[in-house]
Each structure stands twice: as structure tokens, then as C-alpha cells.
UniProtKB/TrEMBL annotation:
This is Nitrogenase component 1. It comes from Anaerostipes amylophilus. Gene3D superfamilies: Nitrogenase molybdenum iron protein domain. Transmembrane segments: none annotated. Residues 28-240 form the Nitrogenase/oxidoreductase component domain. It holds the Pfam family Oxidored_nitro. InterPro entries: Nase/OxRdtase_comp1, Ni-siroh_cyclase_CfbD. It comes from the Bacteria.
Length: 369
């Protein structure tokens, strides 16, 4: 029962994370599910649904096809749609039912790619993980399969300093104007943003990412792609979100990473106050960690971050903590005096605490946008 939620919602699932990460890249994303995943995705998780077209499909898995393991219908439907729509790639995402059935998504992707000639890959989602897992693997696949060798491309201006932003999705950053603010903060310090993974840029732009001098992981979603680009092209990466208070520190870390050609530890974890935290922030570790570091730097108040997402242990500081589940979060908050979090956390916060609302699309959907 410790894993049950009775008051607060759960975070966006891995399947929606895949769709969000790939939304603007011109591919076709197919969720293999009866119907539920798509209705949840387009009514709660995706801010761009009514303003920008994208090839997001649901397979319409039937009970008899699931029981009999009829994968051929799934393959035929995808190939038929691909011949009409000509996507740049095809991404397959699983849900709980095909996960329980043991559907072989890599094999299906191989068959579709062989028969259509369109790059096809699967993301091992099952609806049981959060969006960081799904979106992270989706961008990792883009980094593996589509980024081109910089030696075979027209080189960028050697006098400019170029950076890629990795892990940019509406689930963490909301509408496009918020991303533009991040870019402007970096541009003021002389950095050219070569690509944004993956809001505001197309697949062709992302393919040129290997020309950048350094990568900036602005959310946990971008870490997997950063590691691939480091392994393949030796592009160093820095972890941190360039908010107005932390941009200077991040730009210094970017310079150091380029000079030393090595990855830098998360900027927001450096020079944090060691005394007992006065302010508690809840959310994704990179964005909230960067905000916490900015608060300490600008206001001089000690902070801590409670991270409710999996696979983020390496992105939190000594005072911070990964807290999974409603009951565990409520216990951690019982002595908190000042809390910064999504408004839907307020019912489990102490009545005598000061609560500052900071909406998170991956938690409360489109309610506050």
C-alpha cells in the first residue's frame, strides 16, 4: 500500500514521455495499446496537441489480438500509415498489456524497417515508469541513430561557442516561451544554442548536434543522450538549468568543460549550503536543483530538493533526497516550513507551512497553463 496514491496524482508515464520527446521531429510514434494511453496523453500531457501537428498514433490493440499474439496486424497498420505519411522515422512504445504478453518490439521494429526502408526503433516502455525514463531513452535513440559525424558536414563558424540543450520538453518546461528564456540567458554570455532536444527544432537541426562544443543537460531527460554524444563524439556535458540566477555559473562550467574536454559535475550541486534547509523544493532534480542553488545564491537561504522520480539518485545533492510514493513524501514534508512545488502537492503539506506554487506539467498536466 505504500505505493498507492489517494490524494496526489502520479507523474506522467514513460509512454507519454516518448511522445513528448519526439513530438516535433517529424517521425511517427505508435503507442501499442487499446486506447487509454493516447487519450491520457492528448488531454493531459501535451501542451502542443491543438496547435502543432504530429504523427502520434494508437494501435487499437484488441483483446483477441493480444491473446493470440497477432503482431502482423500491428505491423501491417504501421506500414500502411507510413506509406501514406512518409515519416522520417518510426518509434514504437509499449504499454502494460503488450508488456505482460511479452511482445518483441525490437523484432517488430526490425521487420518494419526492413520492409519500409524507414528507420524504426522501439523504446522499452510499459506504463510503469515515469516520463524521465521514456523520454530519456527516446532522445538516446535519436542520438544513436541520427546525429551525423561532424567531419562529414559543413563546419560551423569556428569563432562562435556552440551548445546543445538536452532534455527540453513541455513536461518540464511548459510552453516554448520558457525555452526561449533559457536560450536568451545563454546568449547573453556569448553562447550560441545550436539545437534544443527537443522543442523548437526539427530532426535536421538535431542531426548537426555533433558540431557543438559542449552539451548542457537542462533536465534529467537529457542525460542519456549526453552520455551517448560524449561516448561517440567526445562532446563534454554540463548539468544544470540556466535560470536567471545560475546562468553565470553554468556558463563558467561550459567554458571549463570545453577547455578541459571533460564532463563537469552538476553545477547546481556545487557550493550549496550545508546548514539545515529552510526551503523545500519538490520536483525534477535538475530544474529544481538549479532553482534551489539560485535561491541560495541570491537570497542566502538554505534549500533542499525532494525528487519524486526514479533513476535520479546521481543528480541530487547531500541534503536532497529521492522520495517515491505519496506516504513517503508526506512524511518528509511534515516538518517543512517553506515549500515550493506544484499546486497539487498542497493537500499533503503541513497546514502551517508557507506554500509557493510552481506548476509542473508532468505532474498536474494542463490545469495551470
Amino acid at each position: 500500500m505504500r505505493q498507492s496514491y489517494r490524494i496526489i496524482p502520479i507523474y506522467t508515464a514513460d509512454v507519454s514521455g516518448v511522445c513528448s520527446a519526439l513530438y516535433e521531429l517529424g517521425g511517427m510514434t505508435v503507442m501499442h495499446d487499446p486506447s487509454g494511453c493516447n487519450s491520457t496523453y492528448n488531454t493531459h500531457d501535451e501542451l502542443r496537441w491543438y496547435d502543432q501537428d504530429s504523427l502520434i498514433f494508437i494501435s487499437g490493440l484488441t483483446e483477441i489480438d493480444a491473446i493470440m499474439g497477432n503482431d502482423q496486424k500491428f505491423i501491417d497498420d504501421i506500414e500502411h500509415a507510413a506509406k501514406q505519411l512518409h515519416p522520417k522515422f518510426i518509434a514504437l512504445a509499449g504499454s502494460p498489456i503488450p508488456f505482460m504478453n511479452g511482445t518483441d518490439f525490437p523484432a517488430i521494429a526490425h521487420v518494419i524497417e526492413a520492409e519500409t526502408g524507414i528507420p524504426t526503433f522501439s523504446v522499452p516502455t510499459n506504463g510503469m515508469n515515469d516520463y524521465v525514463y521514456g523520454a530519456g531513452i527516446a532522445l538516446e535513440e535519436i542520438a544513436k541513430r541520427f546525429v551525423k559525424d561532424p567531419e562529414k558536414q559543413d563546419q560551423k563558424d569556428s569563432t562562435s561557442k556552440a551548445v546543445n540543450l538536452l532534455g527540453v520538453t513541455p513536461l518540464d518546461f511548459g510552453p516554448q516561451e520558457n525555452v526561449e528564456i533559457l536560450k536568451q540567458n545563454l546568449q547573453k554570455c556569448g553562447w550560441e544554442v545550436m539545437s534544443s532536444w527537443a522543442m523548437g527544432d526539427d530532426l535536421e537541426t538535431l542531426q548537426r548536434s555533433a558540431q557543438a562544443d559542449v552539451n548542457l543537460v537542462v533536465s534529467a531527460v537529457g542525460l542519456r543522450a549526453a552520455k551517448i554524444l560524449w561516448k561517440t563524439y567526445k562532446i563534454p556535458y554540463v548539468i544544470g538549468t540556466p535560470n536567471e540566477w545560475l546562468t553565470e555559473d553554468i556558463c563558467n562550467a561550459l567554458e571549463l568543460a570545453v577547455t578541459k574536454k571533460e564532463n563537469q559535475k552538476a553545477v547546481y550541486l556545487q557550493k550549496r549550503m550545508s546548514k539545515e534547509a529552510k526551503i523545500t523544493l519538490i520536483g525534477e532534480p535538475v530544474t529544481m536543483g538549479s532553482l534551489a542553488a539560485g535561491i541560495e545564491k541570491h537570497y542566502g537561504h538554505s534549500t533542499r530538493v525532494l525528487c519524486p522520480l526514479k533513476e535520479c539518485e546521481a543528480l541530487i545533492g547531500e541534503k536532497d533526497k529521492v522520495v517515491l510514493g505519496e506516504e513517503a513524501m508526506e512524511e518528509e514534508l511534515k516538518n517543512a516550513k517553506i515549500i515550493v512545488a506544484d499546486p497539487l502537492y498542497k493537500p499533503i503539506c503541513p497546514k502551517n507551512s508557507a506554500f509557493y506554487e510552481l506548476a509542473h506539467v508532468a505532474f498536474s498536466g494542463r490545469i495551470y497553463f
